[in-house]
Amino acid sequence: MPALRRAATVLTAACATALLLGTAPALAADGTVGVRETVCATDLYVRTEPVGAWMGTLYKGQTFTVERKQGSWAYGFAYGDINRRGWVQDGWFC
Q1: Domain 36-89 classified CATH 2.30.30?
Q2: Is 5 left (phi over 0), alpha (psi -120 to 50) or beta?
Q3: Domain positions in the chain
């Protein structure tokens, strides 16, 4: 019986791993200066400065041209409903 219980435990763990791997979200990446990047996050806040006031939201599939970077933030032009320059947290591009 212990062998059967051990086999069931291994099978359960393997199924759980397969489910997790099959539903894992796409990995996001840092933006590249001079490139019009696609937003991979569900939503990405555009701010007046790093950690500044909110001025709009980019949604998954919308685009942002990275003009410069400062630490974990990217400055550039946000397309879509915003259509203006601002700062976004870097690392959320496809």
Answers
A1: yes
A2: alpha
A3: 36-89
